[in-house]
Write a structure and sequence with these properties.
Blueprint (H helix, E strand, L loop, with lengths): L1 H18 L4 H24 L3 H14 L4 H13 L4 H14 L7 H14 L3 H8 L8 H13 L3 H14 L5 H10 L7 H12 L1 H4 L5 H6 L5 H12 L7 H8 L5 H12 L3 E2 H10 L3 H12 L4 E4 L9 E6 L2 E7 L9 E6 L2 E7 L4 E5 L5 E6 L6 E6 L9 E9 L2 E8 L8 H7 E7 L6 E8 L2 E9 L2 E9 L2 E7 L9 E7 L7 H12 L8 E8 L9 E5 L5 E5 L9 E7 L5 E8 L6 E7 L2 E6 L4 E6 L5 E4 L5 H12 L7 E4 L7 E8 L2 E8 L5
Parallel strand pairs: 1-2, 26-29
Antiparallel strand pairs: 2-3, 3-4, 4-5, 5-6, 6-7, 7-8, 8-9, 9-12, 10-11, 12-13, 13-14, 14-15, 15-16, 16-17, 17-18, 18-19, 19-20, 20-21, 21-22, 22-23, 23-24, 24-25, 25-26, 27-28, 28-29
Helix pairs in contact: 1-2, 2-3, 2-4, 3-4, 4-5, 5-6, 6-7, 6-8, 7-8, 8-9, 8-10, 15-16, 16-18
């Protein structure tokens, strides 16, 4: 197969190189030719029974051109041969019919395949619609599917008419009489037309029994005792596929009640239709038979299949272990796209995996839900835990059917009216919610709630806490954060809430993702202040405040005396004009200094009794307040201050050639300032 793929690749590559300089439709034609060749190769492998190789050729063909109906039809057909999920088969055959571009096959074959699986999922109307489209399909497969759909729609007159016509049109097709006997067994009529059809079909039984041996079992319910026994004895020599033979053998004395029970449980181990199981139970009469049934039930490990909505497609499956439900499966559309699975511990529901909504539910005492966990790949993972007995989900009811003395049969019955709860409903009763942010799989946010309001939030990274959030009346007030990961929470973030606030959506989205993950919170949160204790002595030495109008104030308390020694204020004015100011206290003489910046450039320094111009040092982000010194002094100050990330850092530079001055150097944001101070002012 690898050689075949390589050959196809080389063929396509040659076409691409040869036509590379041509228009795009030439390349499209080359891809179409490659895909057509894949159809031919897939057909050859299909005829040879090499389904996997045929499937590979189909997928290669679809890679080059998805517009060819034959490829999608073969895709569906080969999925069927490989016993893949029904919903995948339906999806592929639907695409084959939509494309309407056929090479070798015909849309009629695809219509029949689609109708077949529409019926398999209980959609009779869709099956009849596709079969009756122009041109109408009259072949035996189409008529058989129409007949089956009619029976499931309870249109017996139409079904009988089709079967009557099929006797003449398709006399060798045993599916039609088998369908008649299967569906009319419990609904036999004394009407003349029904009796005439039944008699004519029984007369042709010899022709059909070798093709469909099961017809002998069903026909036995339409004939006299001697004929029935003869049919069943003949059926005994076959493979005995249909479990109804057990009931027929019992009714006509070919099985004792004990033998019928043994045969029933042997088949049920592999899976059996629930109606047959309970029909046999209903005909038992001897007390010892019920005792024997109960005895077998204790060791029963098998499956019962239910058609919960009576559309002819089994959609509810109960797996037993030691006579108790161990797994319960619900497939609403009978298309193999499971809705949910419930795992039980000795008959008691413990866990439900809901594939439709992508979450798992864990039960405390069924139907009370203990916790919930989502697993959708495209969404954030979420877990919830609930106050005991506050949330219920009764997907099924457990009926106890008396069998013998104190022995009962545990029968889950689907609760079709039970609606799976949504996230909002669950959040209303949660006492703990855990969010796993999608952007970082190692992060986790754990919210504790009381009366549907968040009280605290714990933020962890690789299971190590790095932040704690505290709420009041459900609104976040502040977070303590360990930004450097040393185990000490040096940063405190304060938050404000204003529902009228018109914040930037992208900024808000980032903020909400960090704080709440996918947990739904009202709009209007914003970070109002950050305080940092850089030396972790319990006294904040940095503060930054944010205001809804865009103003920002940053302050540093270098000596930690409770007064801010350095303040930086930024304000966006109308027309996006940026106004910035820096206030600081000269640590040498306690003089207040204000630096004014215009559009990001320092221009003037104001003192209580004077002003100084600001001069920029060439090729450095360094600014002199008033008189400047040598460039090497500025470089020395800049180098020392740039070594640390601490904002508001201040140092003294002393050099022998400063002519009786020292230099006070300060780091503010991305700016570095220097001011010459006379020695006599130093205390």
């Amino acid at each position: 197969m690898k050689k075949n793929r390589a050959a196809l690749f080389l063929l396509s590559l040659f076409s691409f190189l040869f036509l590379g300089a041509q228009e795009s439709d030439y390349l499209q034609q080359a891809n179409f030719q490659t895909a057509t060749r894949c159809v031919e190769l897939a057909r050859d492998q299909l005829v040879a029974g090499n389904y996997i190789d045929a499937f590979d050729f189909v997928e290669v063909g679809l890679f080059y051109d998805e517009s060819i109906s034959d490829l999608w039809y073969l895709h569906a057909l080969l999925l069927e041969y490989q016993n893949k999920e029904i919903f995948k088969i339906i999806d592929s055959v639907e695409k084959a019919l939509e494309k309407k571009s056929w090479l070798y096959y015909t849309p009629e074959a695809a219509r029949i395949l689609y109708a077949k699986y529409a019926l398999a999922t209980g959609d009779m109307h869709a099956a009849l619609k596709i079969l009756d489209e122009k041109p109408a399909l009259i072949q035996s497969d189409a008529e058989y599917l129409r007949c089956l759909a009619s029976y499931r729609l309870q249109d017996r007159e139409k079904a009988r008419e089709i079967i009557s016509n099929a006797r003449r049109l398709f006399p060798n097709d045993a599916r039609f009489p088998l369908l008649f006997f299967q569906n009319e067994r419990l609904m036999q009529s004394n009407e003349e037309a029904f009796q005439a059809l039944s008699t004519s079909l029984l007369a042709m039984l010899e022709k059909w029994k070798t093709r469909e041996p099961d017809i002998l079992v069903y026909a036995s319910f339409f004939v006299d005792e001697d004929s029935a026994v003869r049919y069943l004895k003949e059926y005994r020599l076959t493979e005995k596929k249909d479990p109804l033979y057990i009931l027929a053998f019992l009714e006509h004395g070919l099985y004792t009640e004990e033998q019928a029970i043994q045969a029933l449980f042997q088949i049920a181990d592999r899976g059996i239709a629930a109606p047959v199981f309970f029909e046999l139970l209903s005909v038992l009469q001897a007390p010892q038979s019920f005792a024997f049934f109960a005895e077998n039930l204790e060791d029963f490990s098998g499956r019962l299949d239910f058609d919960s909505n009576r559309d002819g497609a089994d959609d509810f499956f109960v797996y037993y272990k030691y006579g108790r439900p161990s797994t319960i499966v619900y497939d609403k559309n009978a298309d193999d796209a499971l809705n949910w699975i419930i795992e039980c511990d000795y008959g008691l529901a413990e866990k439900c995996i809901d594939y439709e909504k992508s979450y798992e539910v864990y039960f405390g005492r069924y139907p009370f839900v203990d916790s919930f966990s989502s697993f959708a790949l495209e969404e954030e993972r979420m877990e919830m835990r609930f106050v005991d007995a506050s949330v219920t989900w009764e997907a099924y009811e457990l009926e106890l059917i008396p069998i013998f003395e104190n022995k009962v049969f545990y029968l889950p019955v689907l609760n079709r009216d039970s609606q799976a709860f949504d996230l909002r409903t669950m959040q209303a009763f949660a006492n703990e919610i855990v969010i796993y942010p999608k952007e970082n799989e190692h992060k986790k946010i754990r919210f504790s709630l009381q009366n549907n309001r968040i009280k605290t939030a714990l933020y962890t990274l690789k299971d190590k806490p790095y932040a704690y959030g505290f709420f009041e009346n459900g609104l976040l007030q502040f977070r303590n954060v360990d930004r450097d990961g040393n185990g000490s929470y040096e940063t405190t973030e304060f938050y404000a809430f204003d529902p009228e606030l018109k914040s930037e959506k992208n900024k808000e989205a980032n903020l909400y993702t960090e704080l709440f993950g996918s947990f739904e919170m009202p709009e209007g949160y914003y970070l109002s202040e950050v305080r940092i204790d850089t030396n972790e002595n319990g006294i904040p030495d940095f503060r930054e405040s944010y205001f809804p109008d865009g103003r920002q104030i940053t302050a540093w308390d270098e000596n930690e005396n409770g007064s801010w020694d350095l303040v930086y204020e930024k304000n966006m004015q109308a027309g996006d004009f940026l106004e910035e100011k820096v206030f600081f206290i000269n640590p040498l003489n306690n003089e207040e200094v204000e630096i004014v910046l215009e559009n990001g450039i320092p221009t003037i320094a104001r003192y209580a009794d004077r002003t100084k111009k600001i001069l920029k040092e060439k090729d450095l982000p360094f600014y002199w307040l008033g008189e400047s010194s040598y460039t090497r002094h500025a470089l020395k100050a800049y180098t020392e201050l740039a070594k640390t990330d601490i904002q508001g850092m201040r140092i003294l530079i002393d050099d022998h050639d400063m002519r009786g001055f020292r230099m006070l150097a300060i780091k503010i944001d991305t700016f570095y300032f220097g001011e010459l101070i006379e020695d006599e002012t130093i205390y």
